[in-house]
Amino acid sequence: MRIGVDIDGVLNDVGSWHYSCGFKFCIDNNIDRGFNPHKYLMEEQFFLTDEENNKFWKEYIFDLMVSIPTRPYAAKIISTLKDMGYTIVILSARDNRYLSNQYANTMNFYVEEWLKKNNIEYDEIIAGPGSKKDKCLKHNIDIMIEDKANNVMEISKYIPVICFDTPYNLDIAGDNIYRVYSWYQIYKYFLERC
């Protein structure tokens, strides 16, 4: 069985990272238009203009790429799933959009380095822009672990989705959607279906 695993919001808690770095950025730049934790994108959460959003990512993209920690037990559970015979496919929408010339490598390089640094085992990486649903179908993913609401809804029409709970996906549910709150709960899901 091929398990698709998202990075931001699944392997890491990008929501908390957004909140911490977003508030710092807004205070440092005298931006105060409110805050909405139920939105997914930084510019929606903090009501940033395109110019402010680009400035934010220019300042913080490297922190996201290399410093953000994994969620507790992510590496251990993925290793256990691999030992159980599952194929782990890292499936991310990360792209090179916010990388400037100061970073000599592509986003895939940083993804691979972050996975290595955090001892995340995998069999394949599929990264870049485009529909995650299409990527799941093209690469024969049997089940996807995802957090972004529209991805969860779209993918779940075709394959089961384990939805990692976040403030920005609270109102989604469906027959093919299984909500979880931790990596050990993901492990339990697979134990019960072996």
The CATH architecture of the largest domain comes to: 3-Layer(aba) Sandwich
Number of strands: 6
Number of helices: 8
Cα separation of the termini: 11 Å
Strand order of the largest sheet: 3-2-1-4-5-6
Largest sheet: 6 strands, parallel
Low-confidence stretches: none
Structural overview:
- Strand 4, helix 7 (149-155) and strand 5 form a beta-alpha-beta unit.
- The chain folds into 2 domains: 2-13 and 69-193, HAD superfamily/HAD-like (Rossmann fold), CATH 3.40.50.1000; 14-66, no CATH class.
- The chain has a 6-stranded parallel β-sheet with strand order 3-2-1-4-5-6, with helices on both faces.
- The chain is α/β, with parallel strands linked by helices.
- It starts with a strand and ends with a helix.
- The protein is built from 8 helices and 6 strands; from the N terminus they run E-H-H-H-H-E-H-E-H-E-H-E-E-H.
Short description:
The chain has 8 helices and 6 strands; from the N terminus they run E-H-H-H-H-E-H-E-H-E-H-E-E-H. The chain has helices at about 15-30, 40-45, 50-65, 75-85, 105-115, 130-140, 150-155, 185-194; strands at about 1-5, 85-90, 125, 145, 160-165, 175-180. The chain has a 6-stranded parallel sheet, with helices on both faces.
